[in-house]
Each structure stands twice: as C-alpha cells, then as structure tokens.
Amino acid sequence: MTSYAKRPVWIDLTAGDPAAASAFYGSLMNWSFPPQHPDAGGWLAAMATDGAAAGISPRPPGVEASFWNVFFGADDIEATIAYATDLGATVMMPPVPIVVDGKLMSTIAILIDPTGAAFGLAQQAASPGLQHAQGHGSVTWYELMTRDLDAGANFYASFLGGTVEPAPVDMDYRQIVLPNFGAFAGMMAMPAEVPATVPPFWAPYFEVDDVDATTAAATAAGSTVLMPPHDMTAGRIAVLLDAEGAALNLITSPAHEHA
Q1: pLDDT of residue 257
Q2: Which residues lie below 8 Å from residue 77, measured CB to CB, with a gap of 6+?
Q3: What is the predicted pLDDT for the residue at 101?
Q4: Please, which residues bridge with residue 46 across strands?
Q5: Are 88 and 117 in contact (CB under 8 A)?
Q6: How many domains does the chain have?
Q7: What is the Cα–Cα distance from 56 to 11, expressed in whole angstroms?
Q8: What sign does the CA torsion over 110, 225, 215, 232 have?
C-alpha cells in the first residue's frame, strides 16, 4: 500500500547562531525558548501561549546557509521514503530517531525532491508537532520556490496523494490541495534574478498581526527586505531574509485566516 506523506507537522530553522536567532524570532513572533534537556544537542523549541511553534537547530559543520526546513508527516517513514524515491526524490539524511531523556520524540529524515528542494519527513512519537495553529507567529501557508514547476507539481501531487491546481491570481502560482483538507501550500517559479547557486527551497509563511510593523521591526533587527508589504488575494504579505539569509515570509490574512 502506498504510504503518502501528510501535510507539514513541523518546521525547523537551521541557524549558524541559534542564540541570536532565538532572540530575533522570539521578539518578532512573541515566542519563548524554555531550557532543553542536554540530549537536545543545542536544539531550541519555540513556544507560543498555545504550544510549540517551531524549532531552531545549530547548523551542522559544512553547511554554510541558514534555512527553514519543512517536515511533512509520515505514518511509516521507511515506506514513505521508498515511495518518494520511486517518484524521483533522493535521500539526503536517512531516518534518525530523536530520543530525549530516554523517550522517542520523533523519527526524522531529509530528502531532496526532483527539482532540488530539500524537505523533511517526521514520524511523530511523543512529540506533538506544531501546536500554535492560529494568530501571530503561527504558520499559515507553505511555499516552494523551484525552477521546474511542472516537475514539482507532478511530484507533490503524487507524494501527498492530492492535486496541484492553478491559484486564482494573475501569475503562474499553483496550490497543493489535499483531500478533506484543502489548499495548504503553493509553488512558484524562482525569480530569474535569484543566483543559480541558490537551490530551490521550501519556506513557511508566518501570520503576523501587522505585516508592515513586523517588517519594520525585522529590518531594524538586521533583516533584508526582498519584497516590501503589498496586498495580494490571500492578504498583505512581505518577503524578507533574516540576518543569516534564511527566508522570512510574512502575511496578515483577513481575520487571520488564509484564503
């Protein structure tokens, strides 16, 4: 039986300076970072008032870029990896059990899709995954930037057991739609001005109360604005890079609900 991946259950920022990143995102998103068990190896959990919002991990040796990693859920991670590789994905990091204080939290793996974008898989155990689902600092949308939209659409439709459909906007923007859930992510072509050395990537969109004010605060703290706040069908959005160059996408949706 085919083991489809599920919609994202976790996001994690790989950062060169986790302490600086936690200070930045804590202030920007109203997250707190409680002390972690030594087994966590420097990993930090971002917490909102209603639970886990994200994680921040130290950048491994040899990894020069900081980035957000989106982890799709898996009921059977080995079978889901096998299905993904049948569809053309490659395994970057095979399944690794995350054990903290003797308790299995999750088993994770990192893959590369056929367009070159990295994504994670997570088979949750004791970890509840993302809990902060609404309001400031929550993830309201996911987006793949790729240089091969057709290949990406074919892969994720099959991988997730859903469909990829044109979005109701005046550009080639596609939405990933899951049965009994709806659209949760989009994909678009990498802008031509992005250097060829930048690989395709996934990134979350964070809901914020006021995208203009949050953009100003992020800029004051060292972020770079790629696309200033502007109105779209889904709401008012802005696209930035944080101080380490990781994608920082912001949105203020109508009534904090993505269209």
Answers
A1: 42
A2: 95, 107, 108, 109, 121, 122, 123
A3: 94
A4: 54
A5: no
A6: 2
A7: 9
A8: negative
In a domain, 132, yes or no: no
- Residue 219 structural domain: 139-256
Residues 10 and 118 in one domain: yes
CA 210 from chain center: how many Å? Answer: 21
Say how many CA atoms lie within 13 Å of 86 toward its Cβ: 11
Question: Is residue 1 in some structural domain?
Answer: no
Angle (CA) 119-254-214 rounded to 5° is 65
Q: Which of 54, 204, 70 is nearest to 129 (CA)?
A: 54
Residue 184 has pLDDT above 60, yes or no: yes
CATH code of the domain covering residue 86: 3.10.180.10
Q: In sequence order, which ranges of 56-183 are alpha helices (DSSP H)?
A: 77-86, 149-160
Which pLDDT belongs to residue 1?
A: 65
CA distance 165 to 143: 14
Q: Is the pTM of this model over 0.85?
A: yes
**Does residue 105 sit in the same domain as residue 211?**
no
Is residue 227 included in any domain, yes or no?
yes
Tell me the average pLDDT across 214-238: 94
* Domain annotation covers residue 133: no
Q: Which two tokens stand for residue 179?
A: 């049965």
Mean of the per-residue pLDDT values for the chain?
94
What is the identity of the amino acid at 47?
M
Distance of CA 222 to the CA centre of its chain: 21
Tokens at 41, concatenated = 């190896």
